[in-house]
Design a protein that fits this description.
The complex is a heterodimer. By secondary structure, chain A is mainly alpha-helical. Chain A is 75% helix and 2% strand. Chain B is an alpha/beta fold. In chain B, strands 1, 2, 3, 4, 5, 6, 7, 8, 9, 10 and 11 form an eleven-stranded mixed β-sheet that branches. The longest helix of chain B has 19 residues. The chains are: A mainly alpha, B alpha/beta.
Chain lengths: 293, 356
């Protein structure tokens, strides 16, 4: 073995040790704060619930069977998925043009535009949802406006799926736009100029050149948006009303109203598993050339 | 005992219990024993926590050199904390606030200390109406109580419903409000009205399905109902009479009455965990919360009735909180509530909280 090769091996080992030192603390932290509770929760979900004993040690699939054999819970899961898909589609439809325009603008107001998108993130989701309640509730701003202008009450928007979708879109949209803006800014504007020089109209250039290049980023933005929507808690609770059920509020109901930790654990795992499965499925459905590599 | 939380053997049960303690984060670390100069009270936040400070902590305990620390949170995490910390020699809370059915559950699981009545002299003043075997007031000290009544808007309703059955009148269609988070109490109230006792759940279910078909408005949180009265969304509702007093004081158009069939009692109280680190402090706190002045403060500001017989109310407060003489007030049957509550909550969720 040559001296150079030996030195290279030593260097590589040093790099590996250094990487381990850098990654180690974070990995241990993640394991302790995320994996360990999940393992505990998984174990709880196999326990038995007794109304007076609360959680009783067992190894039973009963809680999972309860979820998958009761149409009520399956409907709640279906509602959660439907709302999340609609929210994701709405965020992409609204977010892609805004993010592209934001990425390409050379206006001196660009940083102000970015701030305008970031600012809502300074306010908690619950507070913003409370704002929607003031807007949509009976006797709220929208109702007062239609009564004053047209003499009729506004449509009953509170406690509807529509209100929940609007509320979650308003929360997820800044995340979608900021993710997509970074993606579009990474695409060389000269490509659009080249497309234009070959006669492509801006819409065609966007569709045939920019969007395919941005597709991995669009996919990530969609995944982020979908995951956030699947796990939405405050918005469905406050805007959907008590008769509208999604998975995260239902999970808290089982924990807080019934003290049923095992079934709440099942709901958590079903929610997590369906979110991950659908996210990967969506990723797999995208043609290979567009995927993140 | 079947629960894995309750055994002391170093088995996997213990391991899981320790895991549960981990799950409640900071609560894992029990406190060391203290002198009786500090008391950690696990309580709800908002008005209740503020009134505890204003009526108990500051005027009664602070002058005696005692520091009260509030651990604010919902009841469910508090019960979870008690369960998770039970295997530890010392927990984190000296006092935990709970409603009576939850307190009973905690007592049945052996999580609570049975109080030495000699250390809480005011226990002797607790109203006989607020006792229940060895559970109340010896394990669960009743702090405040109210009754489930029929609320109405006095500006628009001149002839309010006086019985639960009256709520089925088509005249109230779409104008009745109830709280989604009080399903089990509403079921008990309906059972009392339909069958004469709060355990007649089959009769309650039949009644509530009809009530739901009368376009029952459900509100997610208690205070959501007051704007419903103000905006005209509802004209009558099922609610704790204490709330009607609070809303009256906030200028909402609400009045309340006790149904002719009788009313369920809602009792909120405090318990001492069996592994409370500062039991002397907890005893001092328990005695303070039963002081007449503290009880009168809660009555004046929250509309809840005193739980002791020596806290006379006067003036407007006495007028607002007066119950009709001879009104039938019924406590939940805690043994039954303990066994059936999850099943009834499920029924409520799937049948009443379903889409209209």
């Amino acid at each position: 073995m040559s001296v150079a090769a030996a030195l290279e091996r030593v260097d590589r080992r040093r790099e590996a040790v250094s990487a381990a030192f850098l990654l180690g603390p974070a990995t241990i932290f993640v394991c302790l704060t995320m994996v360990a509770p999940l393992v505990l929760l998984a174990r709880y979900s196999l326990n038995r619930f007794d109304p007076t004993e609360l959680m009783v040690t067992a190894l039973t699939p009963q809680n999972y069977l309860r979820f998958f054999t009761d149409p009520f819970y399956l409907r709640v899961l279906a509602t959660t998925i439907r709302v999340s898909v609609v929210v994701t589609a709405a965020c992409l439809v609204l977010g892609i043009p805004m993010a592209w325009r934001l990425a390409r603008t050379e206006s001196r107001w660009k940083s102000a535009y970015v701030m305008a998108i970031v600012l809502p993130l300074f306010i908690g989701a619950t507070t913003r949802t409370a704002g929607w309640m003031i807007l949509l509730a009976r006797g709220g701003m929208l109702d007062l406006a239609t009564r004053t202008l047209f003499g009729v009450p506004s449509l009953e928007l509170m406690n509807t799926e529509f209100a929940v979708v609007v509320g979650i879109v308003s929360i997820n949209l800044p995340f979608t736009i900021l993710t997509l803006q970074a993606v579009f800014e990474g695409i060389d504007p000269r490509l659009e100029e080249a497309a234009a020089s070959m006669g492509a109209a801006p819409a065609r250039s966007f569709q045939r050149v920019i969007l395919p290049l941005a597709m991995p980023g669009v996919l990530i933005a969609a995944m982020l948006c979908f995951i956030l929507a699947m796990n939405a808690f405050a918005t469905p609770l406050l805007l959907g009303g008590p008769r509208f059920q999604m998975m995260a509020p239902l999970l808290y109901w089982e924990f807080s109203t019934n003290n049923d930790w095992p079934f709440a654990g099942v709901l958590a795992f079903v929610l997590m598993a369906s979110t991950l499965a659908l996210t990967f499925l969506a990723g797999a459905a995208v043609p290979r050339r567009y995927r993140v590599r | 005992m079947g629960s894995h939380m309750m055994t002391a053997r170093p088995t996997r049960r213990r391991v899981l219990a320790a895991g549960a303690a981990l799950a409640v984060g900071p609560a894992l670390f029990g406190r060391s024993a203290q002198a009786a100069d500090r008391c950690v009270v696990g309580t709800w936040g908002g008005d209740y926590a503020r009134l505890l400070r204003e009526n108990i902590d500051d005027p009664i305990l602070k002058p005696k050199g005692m520091e009260v620390v509030q651990a604010v949170g919902d009841e469910a995490p508090r019960l979870a904390q008690l369960v998770a910390q039970h295997p530890l020699p010392r927990g984190a809370l000296d006092i935990a606030c709970m409603v009576a059915p939850t307190g009973y559950l905690a007592a049945q699981k052996g999580l609570l200390e049975t109080l030495d009545a000699a250390k809480v002299p005011n226990l002797k003043n607790v109203s006989p109406l607020l006792t229940s075997g060895t559970f109340m007031p010896n394990q669960f000290v009743p702090h405040i109580y109210s009754v489930q009544g029929i609320a109405y808007n006095p500006l628009t309703v001149k002839d309010p419903p006086k019985r639960w059955d009256d709520l089925l009148d088509p005249r109230w269609k779409g104008k009745i409000g109830a709280l989604a988070n009080s399903g089990f109490y509403i079921m008990m109230g309906a059972a009392l009205s339909q069958g004469g006792n709060p355990n007649e759940f089959d009769k309650a279910k039949a009644f509530l399905l009809k009530l739901n078909d009368n376009d029952l408005h459900l509100y997610a949180q208690t205070d959501d109902m007051a704007p419903g009265f103000k905006s005209g969304e509802i004209e009558v509702g099922i609610i704790w009479l204490a709330r009607t007093v609070m809303w009256q004081n906030a200028d909402f158009p609400v009045a309340g009455l006790v149904p002719e069939e009788g009313a369920m009692m809602y009792i909120s109280g405090m318990v001492m965990p069996a592994n409370a680190p500062d039991k002397e402090g907890a005893y001092a706190y328990m005695n303070a919360l039963l002081e007449p002045a503290a009880q009168q403060g809660f009555a004046a500001h929250m509309g809840y009735l005193p739980t002791v017989g020596n806290a006379d109310l006067t003036g407007k407060v006495a007028e607002q909180l007066a119950l009709p003489p001879g009104a039938k007030l019924v406590q939940p049957d805690y043994e039954t509530t303990g066994k059936l509550q999850p099943e009834m909550n499920d029924w409520w969720l799937k049948n009443i909280m379903r889409k209209a």
